[in-house]
Specification:
This protein has an eight-stranded mixed β-sheet with strand order 4-3-2-5-1-6-7-8, with helices on both faces. The chain is built from 17 helices and 14 strands. The chain is α/β, with parallel strands linked by helices. Helix 1 crosses helix 4, helix 3 crosses helix 10 and helix 7 runs parallel beside helix 8.
Length: 414
């Protein structure tokens, strides 16, 4: 299959994303799966992960640990940094462009209209995993849980990462309402793991749903610190590492803990406190795209870089709570820049400065100007943060400047 056919597939999906957006319902998607003989029922054991923040990192930790223990692991995550194919992986290797285009073409021929980008992608992932039968499949929800497209599976384990405020227009305005939606992945007689650090309102909901489903609710304490050998070292990862360790213990009580820790240490998730040394600067990429995530990032930076001047470059899609995110900076005196990285989709700079609290933000023209920023703020720590798609633009636009550091030489690898 030629490159043009793959480009056509990508264009089809991006057009659907713009035109149809999100459809938070399962009925229509179940009809689509029926046309393909319900591939989700015959693709391998599923570990289902929901939550506001930490899903991707927890998925990366568990996947890496399982691989170190000798298992073949499939992952379905979202969104992507560079390309749709990275959402569907086996052993960290993305689905090939040929397989991606072939399966999407097959899906579109069978059901050519009426579905969203994410529905087609999820169906594609299920078909791919059915073909390749990995030992475990890590399935990350796209939005919420109860009516998320992924919530047609019967998992062997459910995991709920930190829950906070995000997507309130769909999931509800209170933490209890949001927690109820996330708790929708808790299945009958299936263990579910979450952290003791959840808000008490969240824990109450999770306990109630687990009891109703006769599901064992396992609570984990965050580990005290992230070992220096780990590639993923943000302080906020303490909860995610503990969730991963508990997941392995629950699934494989007799596993080799030394191999597990080797796997956890090797885990990578681009854009999650990714730290690089570029000349005299430290540059951190982190996808803090909602208020709880930004609070966690700022707290980690305060502890890990207490004496270093911090310069932030921010970029947000219009779907994000920019007022809430920017309010996190009120008690700090950091230098802030804002990049309107995708006009029409990202929040324009004019809208950012309308907020009194953010009058000190300066415009940042485009990701390729990182070199100028580094020269103007030598010896500072530069933090690139915001929407995941913004980080993807930044990575792709700065390859010439930062390569090979950006992908192969994280500062923490020593």
């Amino acid at each position: 299959m030629c490159l043009n056919e793959f480009k056509t597939s990508i264009h089809t999906l991006t057009s659907l994303a713009r035109q149809r957006g999100i459809h938070y319902s399962l009925a229509r998607f179940k009809d689509l799966l029926t046309l393909f003989s319900d591939p989700h029922t015959n693709m391998g054991p599923v570990i289902h992960i929901a939550g506001t923040n930490g899903k991707g990192s927890t998925c990366a930790f568990i996947g890496s640990a399982l691989q170190a223990l000798g298992f073949r692991v499939g992952t379905f995550t979202s969104p992507h940094l560079f390309c749709y194919t990275e959402r569907i992986c086996i052993q960290n290797t993305p689905i090939s462009q040929h397989d991606f285009s072939h399966l999407l073409t097959q899906i579109l021929k069978t059901s050519p209209s009426g579905h969203t980008e994410f529905e087609y992608l999820t169906c594609l992932a299920f078909l791919y995993f059915k073909q390749h039968k990995p030992d475990f499949i890590l399935l990350e929800t796209g939005l919420g849980g109860r009516l998320d497209t992924t919530n047609v599976v019967t998992p062997i384990l459910s995991i709920i990462t930190k829950i906070g405020y995000d997507h309130q227009a769909i999931l509800g305005n209170s933490l209890a309402e949001i927690a109820f939606e996330k708790a929708g992945i808790i299945k009958k007689n299936t263990p579910v793991i979450t952290s003791t650090q959840q808000d008490s309102r969240v824990l109450t909901v999770l306990e109630t749903v687990a009891l109703k489903q006769n599901a064992t609710l396992i609570l984990t304490e965050p580990c005290q610190k992230i070992p220096n050998s780990f590639l993923m070292r943000g302080e906020f990862q303490t909860e995610n590492v503990s969730l991963a360790r508990q997941a392995i213990q629950t699934l494989l009580p007799e596993h080799n803990s030394r191999k597990r820790e080797i796997g956890l240490a090797r885990a990578r998730h681009l854009g999650r406190f990714d730290t690089y040394k570029i000349e005299s600067n430290t540059v951190i990429f982190d996808a803090a795209h909602n208020p709880p995530a930004m609070d966690a990032l700022l707290h980690s930076l305060e502890k890990q870089c207490p004496e270093t001047p911090l310069v932030f470059v921010l970029g947000f899609l219009k779907t994000k709570d920019t007022v809430g995110i920017l309010s996190c900076f009120q008690k700090y005196q950091h230098t802030l820049f804002y990049c309107d990285f995708s006009p029409g989709l990202s929040v324009p700079f004019s809208e950012i400065i309308e907020t009194e609290k953010t009058q000190h933000i300066q415009p940042f023209s485009k990701p390729s100007e990182l070199g100028t920023l580094l020269r103007n703020h030598s010896h500072a720590t530069i933090v690139i943060t915001g929407s995941i798609f913004f980080l993807g633009k930044f990575f792709s636009k700065t390859q010439g400047l930062t390569s090979p550091l950006i992908l192969s030489d994280p500062m923490w690898s020593a």
